[in-house]
Each structure stands twice: as structure tokens, then as C-alpha cells.
């Protein structure tokens, strides 16, 4: 019986890892889609990729500010499920401002809201 329980724990642990992996992959893809669409300034496309509630600003405000500073995605360095909320992922990015890569990474919180992953700025 002990072997069976041990095998169950291994299966559950593997499922947890793949679940975390699928969350981080989905969050990273949301960040990529957002930055790919950012130059268009099309909030019909961008708004569904932005988190709402709390201190979140409108899509138009967020997009205008990011574009005024010439913010663009250089690369995603990694991501991890937020230890405080299993439905949130912290995505570590490298961004450029006005064409020059910033020294410090940007940590973006990507939250699962209404069944979709959304970036919070």
C-alpha cells in the first residue's frame, strides 16, 4: 500500500508542476500578445489583455503612457506563479524605452480574471 501512496504523491506533484508550467506559459504569452499589439493603440485588442479593478487605469491611459515612453518588449527572462495567489504569475521582462534597453527588469503581474490572463501595470 505504501508504494501505491508514494506513486499517488508523485503523480499529484507532477500534475502540480504541469499546472504551474501551463500558467506561466499562458501568462508569458499574454505579455507577448500585449506588447505585439501595443503599437497599434487599439484598445479593442489591448483592453482584454489588461487587468481591471483595483488601481488599474483605463486601457487608453495605459497605452498612451507606454507609447509616450516608447516602451517595447525586448525579452521575457522568466516567470513564476505568485506565492500569494495561485491565479497570478510574475513575469520578469526586459524592456526598451525609446529604443534603449533598460538596465533593470520589469516585473509584470499577470492575473487570471474571468477565465483570461491579463497584465497589470
TrEMBL record:
Top-level taxonomic group: Bacteria
Key words, A-Z: Signal
Signal peptide: 1-26
Signal listed as a keyword: yes
Protein's recorded name: Lipoprotein
Gene source species: Pyxidicoccus parkwayensis
Lineage, highest ranks first: Bacteria, Pseudomonadati, Myxococcota, Myxococcia, Myxococcales
Amino acid at each position: 500500500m505504501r508504494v501505491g501512496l508514494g506513486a499517488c504523491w508523485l503523480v499529484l506533484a507532477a500534475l502540480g508542476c504541469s499546472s504551474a508550467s501551463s500558467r506561466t506559459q499562458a501568462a508569458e504569452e499574454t505579455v507577448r500578445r500585449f506588447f505585439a499589439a501595443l503599437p497599434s493603440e487599439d484598445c479593442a485588442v489591448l483592453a482584454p489583455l489588461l487587468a481591471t479593478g483595483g488601481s488599474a487605469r483605463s486601457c487608453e491611459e495605459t497605452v498612451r503612457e507606454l507609447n509616450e515612453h516608447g516602451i517595447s518588449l525586448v525579452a521575457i527572462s522568466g516567470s513564476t506563479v505568485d506565492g500569494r495567489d495561485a491565479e497570478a504569475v510574475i513575469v520578469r521582462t526586459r524592456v526598451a524605452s525609446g529604443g534603449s534597453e533598460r538596465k533593470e527588469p520589469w516585473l509584470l503581474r499577470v492575473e487570471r480574471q474571468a477565465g483570461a490572463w491579463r497584465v497589470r501595470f
